[in-house]
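To assess whether ligand presence alters the predicted conformation, the chain was also submitted together with pyridoxal-5'-phosphate. Input:
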Amino acid sequence: MDMELQAMYQALGVGPAVYRYGEAALERLRDRFAAIDRTAEYNQAKVLRAMQENRVNATHFAATTGYGYDDEGRDNLERVYASVFHTEAALVRPQITCGTHALAVALSANLLPGDELLSPVGAPYDTLEEVIGIRPGKCSLREYGVTYAQADLTPEGGFDYEAIRSKINSRTKLVTIQRSKGYATRPSFSVEQIGELTAFCKSVKPDVKVMVDNCYGEFVETREPSDLGADMVVGSLIKNPGGGLAPIGGYICGTKECVERCAYRLSAPGLGQEVGANLGLMPAFYQGLFLAPTVTAGALKGAVFAASLYEGLGFPCVPGAAEDRCDIIQAVTLGSREAMLAFCKGIQAAAPVDSYVTPEPWAMPGYDSEVVMAAGAFVQGSSIELSADGPIRPPYAVYFQGGLTWQHAKLGILMSLQKLAEAGLVKLPE
Ligand SMILES: *Cc1c(COP(=O)(O)O)cnc(C)c1O
């Protein structure tokens, strides 16, 4: 069997030295993988229970068009999401075009002129800079008279509680906490940590609302930030909760008050959640959510495997190979443009779609430096599918994530290492 598998890897382009190095690393990861499977088992049950409680049936998969009034499939999907995230309400729509859009809706719906937004975890995700107006942008919150304050993390990557307290004032209306590191080399936060930070902010100012950018964090743990006091959790359906099947969409789960405002912002005041046809996407949304816990588990195994391989070769990894996971992202600091390109070439070469193309750096809208991306995905830009990307700037870190199956993630990582080895950028142990 082993010889047969090794021959198949060879046929795909992974040589024996890389294969053997990978197998040795895997031996040490058995317990980690077992723990990831247990979390997936719990989350699978959680999603199933939410579907059963809301009596999901075939009528919920019917397509609607036009205004989408009385769209029971859409309305029930929102109840299922609310059950999974233990919130009063949810907005889950194909009309939310991506994660940034979901976050922009949540922010602009819940901040009015004169209000202040606070990030207690340092700079937000790149694309939010223009939404907030940190970088000048048309239609930013800043243009509408919403100001922004930020408390940076401590040098160790922890919360700077004194700085946070000093930044909360009479105008502070909303606190935004990003769960995942995004394109930064800071640590991602556990649900427990986010819960503590949420409680702290509310102890300083009881009526402040807390929104969590939940991108890449869904189903990594058994709890979500909404279980520990967040008023809104927000994310993209072409990441974890879409399970790889959702072709578009975003979600906002939270209190009735917050979600209602988001619905009015997304469609129009007075219309809210009543409009928005599902366009035949309900089977993909329901089934994707059903698969999301196990798909997330496969992606987590890939991340742990990547850290284990690359750390062993001397490349700094965040999180480290032995550390607990708070999201599916694995940052690997490769130290040079050439190594970033080789890594991405390997991920691309392992893809089921577009495996024959070479990733080139480009100026992606919303990002302020060139970005290189490897993705051979069934859904364009989907990063729950195996992908790697990163801004081409020091420290030249790639952010690796996804894999609809663990086996594919494994192949992608081995292939990335193969490309680095072929370019003479890494030396494998004999
Ligand atoms: C992906 C991501 C976003 C933005 O999502 P898009 O779907 O790319 O617009 C925001 N925040 C974090 C932490 C993300 O990972």
